[in-house]
Design a protein that fits this description.
The complex is a heterodimer of chains A (about 350) and B (about 270). By secondary structure, chain A is an alpha/beta fold. Helix content of chain A is about 45%, strand content about 20%. In chain B, helix 1 crosses helix 8 and helix 4 packs across helix 5. The chains are: A alpha/beta (about 350), B alpha/beta (about 270). Strand 9 of chain A pairs parallel with strand 2 of chain B, so a sheet runs across the interface.
């Protein structure tokens, strides 16, 4: 049993990073995620584990520091919120193109533009479909609790290094700011230089006489070569789809209807489920935990058993596209969302179920 | 029937007076004949060989003509996004303090799109070396105006010459950088004559050696020609460089051991 603490989601991210053996954090302040770097700076992780924490001049610099660190085999991360993550899209595309492992945390706030500092899920498309240029995918994890904020840091680094691919934790301002109890996992020691070199033979760590020099790049001017790079990436993404899908179901066994929701929306839907069941409506909850790879097959199978699905998101309807693609046109699938930092109440979600799915 | 061509090996040991360093990969450079990049590559790689730090060096290449520098330098290298090399180098050096780290950047990369990363890495006093090739033009994309293009100088996006009132002034970023407290060594050199080449090599050696002392950024600017972009022969371009580039970008040390040189332009 690990250590039990009461923490903010953002603090849990930071503490988990130190415990996961992260080598470097590079970030830039932005609400509502600034506690990540504040916590790290206060913790003096360099003295605890040797982890470097640096406040960069911009999100552009942060993500490129992560790129440099990752290119040299180190375990590196950054965190930001929506406008800052938009600035990082160039770097994310490069990380994916150069096949580098890294963790990016997006504590999403309402947009577009400067938007608001209140929670939102409007960056689903950006995270899952690739906000940067080119055909690439991030591994995207959507925590729904402070506990998962902690656990997903470790998981994201594991997946990032397993596939040599950037991973993103897509959370929101509410989970980042709210306090819950969290069981912290035991600290994993940072890799030594020798371990790092032997475990990451692909990394640019300095060329010994007995091996070829290593080049980390996403450039291949030869179209045939660049197509091979793309095919390799796509094959990797198919592997992720096969092996890494995570989701949670609640009350789906006897359900006639289901809510499909991730992150904070799924927490709200849990309450909506209770309210609806008290009214005699048999509703369940399907919560994707990995947004990429998306749980296509489980949702497809669920679609065969229920009469309708309400996709609840704090956006104008983004994940619903993937739900519809997974299920097909056999049942009614509708979206209910609030935007701009408004968090839907459990009651209004039940009303939406009654009006849009059951009565609609 | 034609006689088959027989290649006569003329590279006999007794004939060799100069040898390419093994730290340069044996392949044709992608640079235009007459360009200074190849010479700077050689100076840099010879320096690493002489210091015997090939296995302890991580280089960062930019976007621009030298985007493929990693193909020619036989060391571990990371290709950066345009302008971001100093951010990469910051992280690499912080996480690998026992390695020698350098960035190799052109004027568009360092002084336009990467200005913020350059200034802040320098101002933080990061402990790596920046090699800055300034030819006053965007070479790779076909000769467009750069932040360092001289007033009146023609380029494909300033076809009637750089008009300062509408296109702004050329940026002496090296002088700007020399003023930052995190910067320990700043020099401006050239590679168009043997004596300049020797001075540049000394400067690169000093800049790399300095990383052992952990005192901040070492910054070596090399004013170079771009005969293709300037639409001149290599010889013409070198003469033009001496007559036009050097008065605006005067050669010599600007900051040594953390102190500005009083005779340099910046101090005047």
């Amino acid at each position: 049993m690990g250590e039990l603490r009461l923490m903010k989601g953002n603090e849990a991210i930071a503490e988990a990073a130190i415990r996961a053996g992260c080598d470097g954090y590079f970030g830039y302040p932005i609400t509502p995620q600034s506690e990540v770097m504040e916590y790290l700076m206060a913790e003096r992780p360099f003295e605890r584990t040797g982890m470097v924490v640096l406040q960069a001049e911009s999100e552009t610099a942060s993500i490129n520091m992560v790129y440099g660190a990752a290119a040299s085999g180190k375990m590196a991360m950054t965190s930001s919120s929506s406008p800052g993550v938009s600035l990082m899209q160039e770097g994310l595309s490069y990380l994916a193109g150069a096949e580098l492992p890294a963790l990016i945390v997006n504590i999403v706030r309402g947009g577009p533009g400067l938007g608001t500092i209140q929670p939102s899920q409007a960056d689903y498309f950006q995270a899952v479909k690739g906000g940067g240029h080119g055909d690439y995918k991030l591994i995207v994890l959507a925590p729904a609790s402070v506990q998962e904020m902690c656990d997903h840091v470790k998981l994201a680094f594991e997946l990032a290094f397993k596939y040599r691919n950037p991973a993103m934790i897509l959370s929101d301002g509410a989970i980042g700011q709210m306090m819950e109890k969290v069981v912290l996992f035991d600290a994993i020691p940072r890799r030594t230089e020798e371990e790092l070199v032997s475990q990451n033979p692909w990394a640019a760590t300095g060329k010994p006489k007995n091996r070829e020099h290593i080049i980390i790049t996403s450039l291949d001017l030869d179209p045939a070569g660049q197509e091979r790079v793309n095919l390799k990436l796509q094959a990797k993404y198919r592997e992720m789809e096969k092996n890494e899908v995570l989701y949670e179901t609640l009350g789906c066994e006897d359900a006639e209807y289901v809510f499909v929701a991730f992150g904070l929306s799924a927490r709200i839907c849990q309450k909506s489920m209770d309210l609806a069941r008290a009214k005699g409506i048999k509703v369940g909850l399907f919560r994707p935990i990995t947004l990429f790879p998306f749980p296509v097959i489980p949702i497809h199978e669920l679609g065969k058993k229920v009469k309708g699905m309400l996709v609840v998101e704090m956006n104008a309807g983004q994940m619903i596209e993937d739900v519809k693609l997974s299920v097909g046109c056999s049942i009614k699938i509708e979206h209910y969302g609030r935007f701009g930092g408004i968090i839907p109440t459990p009651d209004e979600v039940v009303h939406a179920l009654e009006n849009q799915i059951i009565g609609g | 029937m034609q006689e088959p061509f027989v290649k006569t090996e003329i590279r006999k040991d007794e004939n060799i007076v100069y040898k390419r360093t093994d730290l340069l990969v044996d392949r044709p450079l992608s640079y235009c004949p007459g360009c200074g990049h190849g010479v700077v590559h050689r100076m840099l790689m010879e320096t690493l060989e002489e210091m015997n730090i090939q296995d302890k060096t991580i280089g960062v290449s930019p976007v621009g003509c030298s985007v493929l520098a990693y193909d020619f330098m036989n060391i571990d290298m990371v290709g950066a996004a345009h302008g971001r090399a100093p951010a990469l180098a910051t992280a690499i050096k912080r996480l690998w303090p026992n390695r020698f780290v350098f960035t190799y950047q052109g004027d568009g990369d360092l002084a336009a799109i990467g200005t913020a990363e350059t200034i802040h890495a320098c101002n933080r006093g990061e402990n790596f070396t920046i090699i800055f090739i300034n030819n006053g033009i965007y070479g790779m994309t076909g000769g467009q105006m750069a932040p360092t293009t001289l007033p009146g100088m023609r380029s494909s996006t300033s076809p009637y010459g750089r008009d300062v009132p509408t296109m702004g002034h050329p940026l002496r970023i090296t002088e700007l950088i020399a003023n930052l407290p995190g910067v320990y060594y700043v020099t401006r050199q050239a590679v168009h004559t043997p004596s300049h080449v020797r001075k540049t090599k000394k400067a690169i050696r000093k800049a790399m050696e300095q990383q052992k002392e952990n005192k901040g950024i070492a910054f070596v600017e090399v004013v170079s020609n771009c005969n293709s972009g300037w639409k001149m022969t290599p010889v013409q371009s070198n003469i033009w460089m001496e007559e036009n580039m050097f008065p605006f970008y005067p050669l010599g040390d600007i900051k040594v051991d953390g102190k500005l040189i009083q005779s340099s332009e910046i101090a005047k």
